Amino acid sequence: DAGRDPAAPPLELHVRIDERDAGFLALGMARGAALGGDARPVAVVTTSGTAVANLHPAVLEAHHAGVPLLLLTADRPHELRGTGANQTTEQVGLLEPVRLTVDVPAPTGRPGEDRDLRHLAARVVATALGRRTDDPGPVHVNLAYREPLVPAGEPWPRPARDGLTEVLRRGATAGGPPSVDAPAVAPLVASGAPARGVHDGVPTVVVAGDGAGPVARRVAEANGWPLLAEPSSGARGGPNAVPGYRLLLAEEGLGGAVRRVVVLGRPTLSRPVQALLGRADVESLVVAPTGADWVDAPRAATQVATEVPPALLAGTGSAGRAEEAWLAR
Question: Is residue 230 very low, low, confident or very high in pLDDT (cuts 50, 70, 90)?
């Protein structure tokens, strides 16, 4: 494919006429890769209708054995469901039990749609691999399509990393084996290496949302970063807290200068904060200790971790010159 990104990894394609055969082939390939120390999900692609149901025996095996599969099933657009249209059935929930079911609507070409699909891809791959739960398994991605099924002379979206979140495995920020995921743009945490970001001069803020706890204040003070804390964060106070941050974020010389955000808790109260987290020129590390999902309403997080990197907690005890100047603004 001449339009394929030359940096993209190669795809090994296997064609099977029978969906049951395809499901068990994928199961065997994924299990073999895991036993060989290279755990990765294997994708199975089917058409709609009864083709989907034929995957169920392999899905049950994958569920009980903890084998990562990506079940990519085509579907009719939502307006044709329940109308008696050809090759249409209720596909959402048909392959349970799985680790996650996502019903993706037919694309419309709206702005940001390609970013949202990249974010979805990062989420489903991380879930299949058990990155946050240590519980790998099958994931069902039901993909609706509306005619024309391919762009009618219009260009495909340009290759980009916008929306591709790197989901770090549990414990990765403390070091360990390298991640098999593609590296994020300017990662704050490099897998198997100490966290960067301590006094590197990048204008950084700590966002403490609901339930963040005192650890957010510790990160801000250890590194000399401003703390933007919501009232219910449990972190509001201290020398780095910025009381009127919602107004300051609108100032080009202050909010406009932010280039990195460390997010703890659930930011809920401030639209300026959500706008900051969604900016293309801002990298963000989201710390979400529990659950398979994480808080990222703008779908723009650079990295997601289950714990604060120890290097960010340790800091150096005092801010560098760049951090002192940044905090003094």
Answer: very high
Cβ-based neighbours of 203, under 8 Å, separated by 6 or more: 257, 258, 259, 260, 326
What CATH number does the domain containing 217 carry? 3.40.50.1220
Is residue 59 situated within a structural domain?
Answer: yes
- Position 158, amino acid: R
- The residue among 319 and 40 whose pLDDT is bigger is 40
pLDDT of residue 181: 43
Q: Select from 144, 179, 213 the last residue of a domain.
A: 144
* pTM for the model: 0.85
- E strand residue ranges, the chain: 42-46, 69-75, 100-104, 138-144, 166-167, 204-208, 227-229, 260-264, 283-287, 303-305
Q: Which pair of structure tokens corresponds to residue 3?
A: 């339009």
Residue 1: pLDDT above 70? no
Burial bucket for residue 161 (CB in 10 Å: 0-12, 13-18, 19+): middle
The residue that leads in pLDDT, 157 or 268, is 268
CATH number, domain with residue 73: 3.40.50.970
Q: How far apart are CA 324 and CA 87, in angstroms?
A: 64
Asked if the model's pLDDT at residue 183 lies above 70, the reply is no
Same domain, 232 and 130: no
Q: Using CB atoms within 10 A of its CB, is residue 109 exposed (0-12), middle (13-18) or buried (19+)?
A: exposed
| Residue 114 lies in domain | 19-144
Band (269; pLDDT cuts 50, 70, 90):
confident
In a domain, 159, yes or no: no
Q: Which residues pair with 207 in a beta bridge?
A: 228, 263
For residues 99 and 37, what is the distance between their CA atoms, to the nearest angstrom?
Answer: 22
User: Would you say residue 9 lies in a domain?
Assistant: no
